[in-house]
Amino acid sequence: MAATPELFLLITCVNSRWHAVASWTWDAQDETCGICRMAFDGCCPDCKYPGDDCPLIWGACNHSFHLHCILKWVNSQTQPHCPMCRREWQFKA
Amino acid sequence: MDADLEALDALTEGNLQQIIESWECFCTGTDSFLSGDLSVAADSDEYAASVRALSHYGLTRLVGDHFLQALEESFRKNAVSKFWKSFNPSSDKTAASTVSSFSNVISLMSQEGSEEMLTASLEEICMEKVYQEKLLSILLNSLLSEGDVASELEDYISTLLPRHQLMVSSVLHSTLPQPFLGILRLYFRKILEELSSMITGECEDGYEASVDSGVGFTCKSDMASRAGAMEIEEVYDQSVTLKNNELIKNIGKLVRDLRSLGFTSVTEDAYASAIFSLLKIKVQYLAGDDYRSPVLESIKEWIQAVPLQFLNALLGYLGDSAGHEDSNSGLKSPLASLPTCYPGIDMPSEELVRWQLRLEYFAYESLQDLRIAKLFEIIVDYPDSSPAIEDLKQCLDCTGQHSKLVDSFISSLRFRLLTAGASTNDILHQYVSTIKALRIIDPTGVFLEAVGEPIREYLRRRKDTIKCIVTMLTDGSGGSATGAGNTGDSLLEELNRNAENQESADYDDDLVTDDKQAWINAMRWEPDPVEADPARGSRNRRKIDILGMMVSIIGSKDQLVNEHRIMLADKLLNKSDYDIDSEIRTLELLKIHFGESSMQRCEIMLNDLIDSKRTNSNIKVSAAKATQIDAKQDEGDMSLEVFDATIISSNFWPPIQAESINVPVAVEELLSDYARRFHEVKAPRKLLWRKNLGVVKLELQFEDRALQFTVSPVQATIILKFQEQASWTSKNLAAAVGTPVDILNRRISFWVSKGILVESPGSDSDDHIYTVVDEMSETNRNGLAKGTLEDLSANDEEGEGSLASVEEQLRKEMTIYEKFIVGMLTNFGSMALDRIHNTLKMFCIAEPTYDKSVQQLQSFLEGLIAEEKLEMRDGMYVLKR
């Protein structure tokens, strides 16, 4: 292999267009919602589409649930607590 | 008897003498009559007197019997042998020639003037017969002139003429030589062919005028036949040529002669078989191998034009002689003896109608046989061959021989379609055509069920059936090169049509609540054909639904939906634009058919694409703002302008094979920039890049040209590495790209095949050196020109796309049950496939429920055998020790 790299032609790449694929995920500590036991990256049983249509919500205690699930829970309680840790439920600011 | 005895007693010598004299006179008279010596007629008085004398003594019966016997003897001796001799020329040579070969007959017929011979000899023998009848009548006259004749004697005398007739025909029949029938048949055939060619020739000139409609024609000719022989000529002059008429007259004479000889049924046989064979030839000629035009009508027209006209004329001609024939012929076949017309009623004679029905049935049957034999070919070019199908339907409606169709078609299917050589696409195509074609023939679907079953069974054994069906369902554009594009079209169309039907069906259901409508429906009910399988209810047979039948091949719609999801995912991930209109359309149609819930995941996948498009543009806008503010843009660096992303909800997509790669630094920066911006827009969501997925469009610039490619990210990463360095060893490159060497080697082969890189053996045996090709040969250049088009398909062909295949997915799902199966087999020792399946079904009811088919289980167990965990012994699975 006597040839030196300088003798080889280098490829120049122009006008490239990159279409990448990614998957999104909620940055939650847990995998599944503690109320409906569905995956966070999925959606709650009442929803059809995951993502924007079925967002996640964090409580002050740092526990996360599907928004729809925890709302249902909160609305059914007079003095709502976090279903996981029993602390008083407050939405994280 | 007593009277006779008394008469015997009363006889005197003189009486006896007189009887003997009279008898002698009678005998000599008879002999001389028969020898043709009519001079005896001169002293017929004497003869008559002797007859009278004999009958006076009560010997009438003796006289009659003797006379008949004498007639028979002479007939047999003179006329018959002469008659037959003319038809059996070889009889002189060998005794056994009565069993004459067919070629003999042909040679006989091919002789010029054989027709004349036939007519002449027939005429001769008829003359003989008429002469004998004349003699007989002389005898009868002398017998009856006695005056008062006892009534029983009168009865006896009146039977003499029929007896003579019977004698003639029985003598002829008993001496009938074999070839005679053949000769008759050939004669009629020849005449008919002549007639046919004459009439068809005429039809070309003035068909409309002469035979504009069958009924009208028969009516007209029927009138003619009623008007008698003389008028036939006049009326026919308008429509049929004089020669034609002459021909029919000749035939009529011949047939009449034959009838008078007692050959009624033989003659009928002969001309019937001649007509039928001619009809068969005509059907074959008309039908042929062309399925694009209906032939049934023209066959019917031909029947009207030729054989019916012939029969009509023939029957009409015979009709005028029917009067005296009916009275003395007890031998006529029931069909022939009917009067030719109903006086006063203006309609074709019953006889003619019967003939027409017979001929049409025969035509139907032969056309049907012809079509059934070629049904496979007909169905192959189905949409074009629908006229043939229509014809066949009409034929079958008339003949009712559907089972023939089923049997023959199934056997041709097995022989020609369901073989290893046929591609699944072709089989499916044929299946769809079969469904469509048989739907026309038999709307109830009974026969379709019988025919479809072998195809379905066969398709179930093929692995790629599901894939092909889904492709057919979804690929409306029909891009496949195997010519199955049409099929895809038709199935998508079917989806469409089905959607419309469904709506109207719903509408129907609503109406059924109405009593009136229910009554109408009830009135419309028809029983299933007798061939229907009683095990299956008729209700689900009502609607022949192609899609339903396709799904039933697979077994469950879940499998089909799953396969569709995987194929859809593959398609979506390889899209560089967000154009999913056709996919949405297909999905909507599938939703109508398979239910919304089962297509939920596919819907989410499409929704992801729509969301991605929106998010992508949002992010780009924000990025553009950012660069404006910052006002600093690295030159030559890739900006977000040339970058797009598809963001998927991974939970709802089929499992994706992760394959880590080190994308070029510039791209890596873009990715993190994009992810950061996404996090800003969609907080608190984050992005996880699937770096091996996606599409990259590249333009490679060489000294004198630029080449465009559409490739996968891995391939792009590889080729971009050659921007830094023109030559790489495979190990170094693999490390730089971040993939195992074997995967790299597989991916890089794309560039090698495109002639961009060249592979050379390196220092190490398993190390290769890849170098950029500096100069391209002509052949390479040609290859490159086409290159871009095939890129994506080449990508597919590389196998193992980015998505896990169905089998792998299934395998993954089945591994849960492995423990169950192993446990079962430790307990029970050995188990059959069915038993394992049933046990799993019984016990795995908790999450995850066991919902696999026997086939799926079997393939999984085969995998376990391959892994040497299980063994198969006599059809039973056992643990491998």
From TrEMBL, chain A:
Q: What PROSITE patterns does UniProt report for this protein, alphabetically?
A: ZF_RING_2
Q: Does the keyword Membrane apply?
A: no
Give the subcellular location. Answer: Nucleus
Pathway assigned in UniProt: Protein modification; protein ubiquitination
**GO molecular-function terms, A-Z:** cullin family protein binding; ubiquitin protein ligase activity; zinc ion binding
Record key words, sorted: Cell cycle, Cell division, Metal-binding, Mitosis, Nucleus, Signal, Ubl conjugation pathway, Zinc, Zinc-finger
* RING-type domain ranges (all copies): 44-86
Alphabetical list of InterPro entries matching this protein: RING-box_E3_Ubiquitin_Ligase, RING-H2_APC11, Znf_RING, Znf_RING/FYVE/PHD
Source organism superkingdom: Eukaryota
May I ask which residue range the UniProt record assigns to the signal sequence?
1-23
Q: Would you tell me the Gene Ontology cellular component terms? A: anaphase-promoting complex
Q: SUPFAM superfamilies given for it?
A: RING/U-box (SSF57850)
Family (UniProt): Belongs to the RING-box family.
Q: What is this protein called in UniProt?
A: Anaphase-promoting complex subunit 11
Q: Which organism is it from?
A: Spirodela intermedia (Intermediate duckweed)
From TrEMBL, chain B:
Top-level taxon of the source organism:
Eukaryota
Q: Tell me a GO cellular component.
A: anaphase-promoting complex
The cross-references to PROSITE patterns, in alphabetical order and at most eight, read: CULLIN_2
Cullin family profile domain location? 499-752
UniProt cross-references to Pfam families, sorted A to Z: ANAPC2, Cullin_AB, TPR_ANAPC2
State any GO BP term from the record.
protein K11-linked ubiquitination
Assigned keywords, A-Z? Cell cycle, Cell division, Mitosis, Ubl conjugation pathway
An example of a GO molecular function for this protein is: ubiquitin protein ligase binding
Instruction: Name the family.
Output: Belongs to the cullin family.
Q: What is this protein called?
A: Anaphase-promoting complex subunit 2
Q: Which organism is it from?
A: Spirodela intermedia (Intermediate duckweed)
